[in-house]
Write a structure and sequence with these properties.
By secondary structure, this protein is of the alpha/beta class. It contains 13 helices and 16 strands. Strands 1, 2, 3, 4, 5, 14, 15 and 16 form an 8-stranded mixed β-sheet that branches. An 8-stranded mixed β-sheet has the order 6-7-8-9-10-11-12-13.
Length: 437
């Protein structure tokens, strides 16, 4: 009995410590003027000594010699740089807390086909990883469910808000498909080539049948909507209902695929679906099929830090992958790759890509305007322009450099407190020797 009470008290204390570690200041909201800054607009060049005016949620003015109303809070950014908020388009942020504990993971569901499952409904706005991420200048992510063939709908999030409703820019940002592999899983995979191909064909057949059923279901309801009085109302099917916006081309289809053969198979599958907007994620061997991806006009989300996929590949290939695809004409987005802990490092991933052939300008687009365009929110995000949402940050240097300090972050017009669990732990343990004397 005493042992049980002691364990309970211990866990309660741990819970208090965790909650304490998440406490941050309240954000500021209102009218702000960022002055004397080098403004990297992304879409309209760089403005030296420029001014950005923010009112409520919106950027209201960008330029030089802008008259600042007296009721604006002025932030002097002399010697500083203003960038659009960075955007990681392939994460589990908000859906996972501790990778080794199942109870803190909410990105998967039982079953192979779950288009009706919405990542938005599982987002935890109080995740410790969110403040850690946003103080590094990342203002937006796409959180993607991952399980089975069709895992569900991804959510496009602002990284500030008290509820999922506050955070969600797009509740249904894209349908996620895990592409079936036509390759062995690794050296441990003892299946024959024939068995691998047979399993691939079976999985692809199931996907095709599900897709055809969805197209039929959508057409059936379309016909009924045109003549509700002259036709019998079809039965509702929750999974097929969730597919309607997909087959109508209203929601992108996000396909996770990595190896050359699988990418080619996925490209072939997309050929007869011209009305659908596809996005490929992962794409570790995209450089091998860059011309085909460019011809198909399919944007890709990739990372620059992963192990080489073949023993004989040059060790630089992961770093070069994004640049080689961009050079071929592919619209490339840089991501940290489905994780949680390292989403804060998306700028450094872009820095690797920039160094290994992509170039700084294209790498900056890969974490700003390109994901905004691919997910249909370029009218709100991705650049510093009048009328867009005030998602931006102020840095004392190049944000692709590890020593650069992010000094201010704005999300949806809110000036975000620059505190996180990392900062609090640093402060807590900085002078621990002094208190133990």
């Amino acid at each position: 009995m005493k042992k049980a009470v002691l364990v309970t008290i211990t866990f309660l204390c741990m819970g208090v410590q965790i909650l304490f570690a998440q406490i941050t200041e309240k954000p500021e909201f209102g009218k702000f003027a960022i002055t004397n800054a080098t403004i990297h607009t992304v879409t309209n060049g760089t403005i030296e000594g420029g001014i950005v005016l923010i009112e409520d949620h919106t950027i209201t003015m960008v330029g030089e010699n802008v008259k600042i109303p007296t009721d604006y809070q002025v932030i002097d950014a002399s010697g500083k740089h203003v960038y659009p908020g960075f955007f990681d388009a392939n994460t589990r942020l908000g859906l996972e807390e501790v990778g080794s504990i199942d109870l803190t993971q909410d990105f998967n569901e039982v079953g192979d086909f779950n288009p009706h499952m919405m990542a938005f409904t599982a987002v935890n706005p109080n995740s410790v990883a969110i403040p850690v991420t946003r103080v590094n200048g990342i203002t937006n992510v796409v959180s993607i469910p991952s399980s089975g063939g069709i895992a569900g709908k991804a959510a496009l999030l602002d990284l500030w808000g008290y509820t999922p409703d506050d955070m969600a820019m797009e509740r249904s940002a894209g349908l996620h498909i895990e592409w079936p592999s036509a390759l062995k899983g690794g050296f441990w995979d003892d299946r024959s080539d024939e068995e691998v191909q047979k399993e691939y064909e079976e999985e692809l057949k199931e996907l095709n049948e599900f897709w055809k059923e969805a197209v039929f279901y959508n057409e059936m309801w379309r016909q009924y909507d045109l003549d509700p009085e002259g036709r019998k109302q079809p039965d509702k099917n929750i999974k097929m209902e969730a597919m309607r916006e997909v087959v109508n081309g209203e929601v992108p289809v996000i396909i996770s695929v990595n190896h050359e053969k699988n990418i080619k198979n996925a490209l072939e599958w997309t050929n007869d679906k011209e009305e659908i907007h596809f996005i490929f994620t992962g794409v570790n061997e995209g450089w091998r099929v860059a011309e085909e991806l460019a011809e198909a006009e399919i944007p890709v989300v990739t990372t620059s830090l992963y192990n080489i996929t073949r023993d004989y590949d040059n060790y630089q290939r992961p770093y070069q992958n994004a640049g080689l695809m961009a050079e071929a004409g592919v619209k490339v987005m840089i991501s940290t790759g489905e994780g949680v802990e390292n989403v804060r490092n998306v700028g450094f991933h872009a820095g690797y890509a920039a160094t290994y052939g992509m170039g700084k300008e294209e790498a900056l687009k890969a974490v700003t305007i390109h994901p905004a365009e691919a997910f249909g929110v370029a009218d709100e995000l991705g650049s510093i322009e009048e009328g867009k949402k005030a998602n931006l940050f102020i840095a004392d240097g190049d944000p692709f450099e590890a020593l650069t300090k992010i000094e201010h972050v704005f999300i949806n017009g809110y000036k975000i407190p620059m505190t996180s669990r990392h900062d609090q732990l640093f402060e807590q343990f900085l002078d621990r020797d002094a208190v133990n004397r």
